[in-house]
Amino acid sequence: MPELPEVEALAQFLDDRAAGRTVVAADVAQIAALKTFDPPVTALVGRRVETVTRHGKWLDVRTLPGDTGDGEGDGPGPGDGDDGAIHLVAHLSRGGWVRWSEKAPTTPVRPRLGGSAGGRIAALALRVRLDDGSGFDLTEAGTRKRLAVHVVREARDVEQIRTLGVDPLTEAFTPDALAALLGARNQQVKGLLRDQHAVAGIGNAYSDEILHVARTSPFRLTRTYGPDDVAALHEATVTTLRDAVAASTGKPAAELKDAKRSGMRVHGRTGQECPVCGDVVREVSFADRSLQYCATCQTGGQVLADRRLSRLLK
Fold it and tell me: Family assignment (predicted)?
């Protein structure tokens, strides 16, 4: 699943290439992926891409009215936001991705209700074509279709964006802010880091990485964190995400998945050596996901039971 660093890199990648271009076509292929109907997707046609940004793990393509030819925009229309903007926002979920083309296909897109026959084959969900012939596709692989596309007047019209927690790469994410989140209720720290209402943009992979850097158990309860522990977790969160963003920035969209995998210390590396201590990386499996950790670095050598609601083995 793309998380904050990859989505940040995708936003920068698209902004570098699409900003200033005019949308000439916006076609839905996967009807179930489109979660809104007003404004319609066709309202994007003829509009100029102003910026591409990120909210947590959400991509936000902000468009403004097109140029009339005299250097001035057309002005807000009846379906536009107060500033004339219409946003195309998308959550890539587990199997979604962005595919950029310097020469986007011009063949008609056939809308469909179901997914592709092969779960491993990325199916087209939405195609946006720009006035210079380039464009991008939103695709989704896998049998469980969770890609979410919204066309809205304000990004905050999407409830999941409006209710996002603090972005860990902003000045608002201070040690005091993290301490307040840790103390709000007693829960496992990995669950807090993954809670989008608390901290925006961190998922299963980077929570594993952050906790490994912080040398703390994924099942440690949040109200057991003292000031020094909070400071260490805060530093690990910011450093891990900033380093991942730096490693991803400038890479083509097609290379970001491999860059993410190659940069992982413990996540997805079950059975391999911990890069810090040399111990074996271990795994705890759940119904639809798993986590990875190093017992030497994070749990004092104790092995976590491989079951839901795991506790340290005695």
Answer: Belongs to the FPG family.
* Domain shared by 179 and 153, yes or no: no
Q: Which residues, 6 or more positions from 264, have their beta carbon under 8 angstroms from its beta carbon?
A: 205, 208, 209
Q: Are residues 155 and 21 in the same domain?
A: yes
CB–CB of 59/14 below 8 Å? yes
70-76: list long-range contacts, CB under 8 Å, 24+ apart. 73/48
pLDDT in tens, 59-72: 999 999 986 444 44
Of 57, 40, 58, 59, the residue nearest 49 (C-alpha): 59
Encode pLDDT of 265-285 as tens digits. 999 999 999 999 999 999 999
The CATH number linked to 44 is 3.20.190.10
Q: Which helix (H) or strand (E) holds 221?
A: none
Give the range of the structural domain holding residue 238, as residue numbers without chain letter.
175-298
